[in-house]
């Protein structure tokens, strides 16, 4: 199997993997966005609950539960953000690998075309030399 065919197959596989990885990345971004919205809603609920506490309608225990839940969710969200950043870096690396393979395959393709052109050029020169030689022989024989 030629190097170009191998690179083409590798490029196809890497592209498919990259597309799957990109979909996973989008899904993670969306999930993170939903978590951030949920966190914002909980913070608003905590503010409302603290107002209700001031009016003696909510106990301090309930406020602490909400606060602890918000802290846990905040930590989880930060961790997911870090994970997302790592995934985005990995995605960029994979994307660069695909581009590198693509460039290499195009370079090999161009080199192949250049070699083919040079061979055709040599063949045309040889044919022209034969034609010139034959016409010279015809002139000499006359």
Descriptive notes:
- This protein is an all-alpha fold and 142 residues long.
- The protein has one domain.
- The protein has helices spanning 3-54, 60-141.
Which helices and strands, and how do they pair?
Blueprint: H1 3-54, H2 60-141
Summary, kept brief:
The chain is mainly alpha-helical. The two termini are 54 Å apart.
What features would you highlight for this structure?
94% helix; single chain; mainly alpha; 142 residues
Taking all Cα atoms into account, the compactness measure Rg is 34 Å
The structural domain count equals 1
Task: Encode the helix/strand succession as letters.
Answer: HH
Report the mean per-residue pLDDT as an integer: 86
Q: Which structural class fits the helix and strand makeup? A: mainly alpha
Oligomer: single chain
Number of helices: 2
């Amino acid at each position: 199997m030629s190097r170009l065919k191998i690179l083409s197959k590798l490029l196809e596989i890497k592209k498919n993997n990259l597309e799957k990885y990109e979909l996973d990345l989008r899904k993670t971004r969306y999930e993170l966005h939903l978590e951030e919205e949920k966190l914002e809603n909980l913070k608003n609920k905590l503010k409302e609950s603290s107002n209700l506490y001031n009016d003696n309608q909510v106990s301090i225990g309930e406020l602490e539960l909400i606060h602890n839940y918000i802290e846990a969710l905040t930590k989880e969200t930060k961790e997911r953000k870090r994970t997302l950043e790592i995934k985005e870096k990995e995605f960029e690396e994979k994307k660069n690998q695909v581009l590198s393979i693509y460039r290499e395959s195009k370079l090999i393709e161009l080199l192949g075309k250049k070699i083919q052109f040079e061979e055709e050029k040599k063949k045309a020169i040889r044919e022209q030399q034969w034609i010139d030689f034959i016409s010279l022989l015809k002139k000499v024989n006359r």
